[in-house]
Fold:
Amino acid sequence: MRVEDLKLDELLEFRDGVIDFQGRRLVLHSTDAFAQFRKDLFEMVGPGQARRILTRFAYFWGQADAAAMRRVFKWDNVIDLIKAGPRLHALQGVARWVTKKLDVDPVAGHFEMDVAWHHSAEAEEHVAVFGRASHPSCWMLAGYASGFMSFALGHDVYFVEHSCRATGERVCTAMGKDRASWGAAINPHLPFFQAADIKGKIQSLTEELHRVMRELKRSTERLTTLERPPLVEVRSKAFTAVLDLATRIAPFDSSVLITGESGVGKEVVARLVHARSQRSRGPFLGINCGALPETLLDSELFGHKAGAFTGATSDHAGLFEAAAGGTLFLDEIGEISHALQVKLLRVLQEREIRRVGESRTRKIDVRILAATNRDLAEAMRQGAFREDLYYRLRVIEIAIPPLRERKEDILPLARFFVERLRVKLKMPKLRLAATAIDPLSAYAWPGNVRELENAIEHAAVLSRSGSITPELLPSNVVLSAGARPGPGQGQRSLEQVESEHIRAVLAESGGNRTRAAAVLGISQATLWRRLKTVKDAS
Ligand SMILES: [Zn+2]
Structure:
């Protein structure tokens, strides 16, 4: 098929009030009506959204035309198919295209087209309702061209109009290029092509709201810690030593690595370091590096520029910037990828960051506290963790002993949690029954302080009288402590008890296996195996 051979009367078939365009229905409409519609659209949704709606409408139109051309005719090469777009647009009465330059390399994905649009109907419509425009206004032309060429080439092409008849020029001129050739220059125009619709807007507002709430929560927590020192009494020598060390090193800006099993309270210690430091008036922000996929973690930490990737609808400052003047707590640092390790090392060395998709660097002013429950020294020996980063992070190490090595702290902690739950659960009568003290103290707490906290909450929620008695504690706590089984519990096998406990913990963590495994103090793989046996048995 040759482009010049396309003829409107051959492309269209008229019958019974239907205009058939190669299997698709077309309708003729008046430009006057479209001009009025354009005006309404402006008034109802504003010029930005109006431009987006019109651009996208014409984009689909261009796409549909390109699809029809490819379906119906056999083209010698992609260039001929590309030329069918301008030809159709002219046949449909939208504008006459004059191609000034066309540079296409389908293999490399390169596309560049300079074009002049004569007698643009859209420019006339615009002037008819608004008078002379201050900016190029042929958005549907740009949308159609982009849609047609993107479909023909099989990848994203964008047209941008740079001079327009609506502004008083004789003809409209535009330039189309593939995404890569545009580079960052296309970014301001991209939103008009994308359905970063209400859903996207709500999403970005929600993200922003979450961020603000997170900061607010952190700062209120910080205020309460400052005003009211924690009421937990520390009895063990081991944990007293930890707190002493944390307090002593707090005023210096050195990086600190906090180690210990999961649930031992690494974040509590990090907050203490922050609260006693010169940065205590600044924010304390934290992130769990093991909880996010790499790309998300990357943009959370470093921020991004609008358009850096799909969904990046606006510029976004990362945690390194948001924590300016304060402290950034990187939990589960052992989980970050090699690429991020390299980036983080650079940050620690240069004290500057670069947002994703941006070339300029920004100075940062944060203290970094990292934490891990993994043996990083071992990971380093195996090559999974960079040695230089390890030493940069571990200028000072605070190792928190597990709860079973500081049993003296169990009771004061349990009382502290009861007190806190009294407020949280609105149970003013909540108390720890004396009989619960022995089983609590005897249990090994593989999930550490977090498991203790959950066990107390578990019992509190089940308690009717407000007393936390042994039989209300999770069964593994009671059984391992050798206490007398509660009513109706005597006939159960250890396996039954274990499976019940696993189910209870899973239910409590809302089915989240990562969290449940942490509470149970076992790996996710182990949890999975146990669940399987639980299922097989029942
Ligand atoms: Zn124009």
About this structure: The radius of gyration is 33 Å. The first strand starts at residue 12 and ends at 15.
